[in-house]
Amino acid sequence: GEAETPVDMETISLDPEAEDVDLNHFRIGKIEGFDVLKKVKTLCLRQNLIKRIENLEQLHTLRELDLYDNQIRKIESLESLVELEILDISFNVLRHIEGLDRLTQLKKLFLVNNKISKIENLSNLQMLQMLELGSNRIRAIENIDALANLDSLFLGKNKITKLQNLDALMNLTVLSIQNNRLTKIEGLQSLVNLRELYLSHNGIEVIEGLENNNKLTMLDIASNRIKKIENISHLTELQEFWVSAGWSCYPN
After folding, report:
1. CB 130: neighbour CB atoms within 10 A?
2. Domain boundaries, given as residue ranges, for the chain
3. I want to staple 156 with a disulfide (CB 3.0 to 4.6 A). Which of 115, 120, 178, 238 is the partner?
4. In which compartments does the protein localize (predicted)?
């Protein structure tokens, strides 16, 4: 199809009093003219033609910024948005996690379906509760020691070969690493609050390493190379257990 023509921003009227601004699929090609939004808390710019994050410096009241499905190559120019709690730059063309150091209030970060190859530059985000990095090019779980408040970590559809460096995530309740290159269940001993563990579509051969994960209610290890059900009798809270394609058990 033909490339869409960006809209003329002067044809979009913005209400200076608005707290929630939704400009989903407006063919916006450049972020400009938003300075008038003196009270904005939520700004949705999903499915536009934006190539660059810019001209948002004045939006000090912003709590949620949604840039899902644009053409953004770099995380930049967000330093002054210190109140930001939710940031979504999924389905863009980002290569690096960067430019987030000042966003210390951030609670949810979504960077799904980009071209990110390394987990990095997250150490200032100590309030972060949800990190979603699915469908990228990540090869290792690393540089997440500072995220002690993390509740949910999603790393599906990457190139991760080993479960490691998770010890600091004492409050984690959901861990999803489906569709990766794992061969062993390990490194989960500190995750005593884990309730949901998704490890389907890997190369895992043995059910093991879950000794300390007594609070698990959901365990998905379907589409692996597991031959035998073992080492789960202590998981008394388990409600759903998926072990091979189409074969599920409800133990209790």
Report:
1. 16
2. 1-116, 139-252
3. 178
4. Nucleus
